[in-house]
Amino acid sequence: MNALVIYALLLKATCTSFSGLASLPLIREDFVVKRHALTDQQLNTAVFAGRAGPGPNGIYVVSVGYFAGGLPGAAAGLLAVITPAFLILPMMRWLKGRTESARVRSAIRGVILGTAGLLLAASLPLARDAVVGSLTLGIVVATFLILSFTKVDSAWVMFAAALVGLMARG
């Protein structure tokens, strides 16, 4: 896939999302569904690679670029991640006095709710691909219950889930 096309698609996704995985629905639609440049498994791997390392949650976009176009694709992904940061500076100056408007706040709230719906819609096919077998499903359910109803730190839950997965394979 052409690095310029990768950049344009990833820029569209990063510019229209507000944080982390919010760009996932657009990326899945463009790279998996429409262009078949990635599989759901490759997208899952890219998300995992971005989430496993330190740094912002949206850095998985670089891995998506790599899977779609090798090193030039990864460079395009990196540029797509940092471009919105440079675009937001003049936009913040323009929005400075307008954020008190009820219409602007309502529009922002609507975009956030729409993003949440898109994220859910994109997460379901990825979860279907990632959750195979009863052990994996058990880990997902246990993780959901522990994180929803206790105050256990998520790092401990991830460590325990990894340990259970390793013991099951060993």
Kindly summarize this structure in a few lines.
By secondary structure, the chain is an all-alpha fold. The protein is 79% helix and 0% strand.
Describe the overall structure.
The radius of gyration is 18 Å and the shape is globular. The longest helix is centred in the middle third of the chain and has 36 residues, at 60-95. The chain has 170 residues and is mainly α. The chain has 2 domains: 3-129, no CATH class; 131-170. The protein has helices spanning 3-15, 24-34, 40-52, 60-95, 102-130, 134-149, 154-169. The mean pLDDT is 86.
Please specify the SSE layout and strand pairing.
Layout: H1 3-15, H2 24-34, H3 40-52, H4 60-95, H5 102-130, H6 134-149, H7 154-169
Helix pairs in contact: 1-2, 1-4, 2-5, 3-4, 3-5, 6-7
Class from secondary-structure proportions: mainly alpha
Q: Helical percent range?
A: over 70%
Beta fraction of the residues? under 5%
Number of helices: 7
Order of helices and strands: HHHHHHH
Question: Radius of gyration over alpha carbons?
Answer: 18 Å
Main sheet record: none
Low-confidence stretches: none
Q: Cα distance, first to last residue?
A: 39 Å
* Mean pLDDT over the residues: 86
Silhouette: globular
The count of β-strands is 0
Number of structural units classed as domains: 2
What descriptive keywords fit this protein?
2 domains; globular; mainly alpha; 7 helices; 170 residues
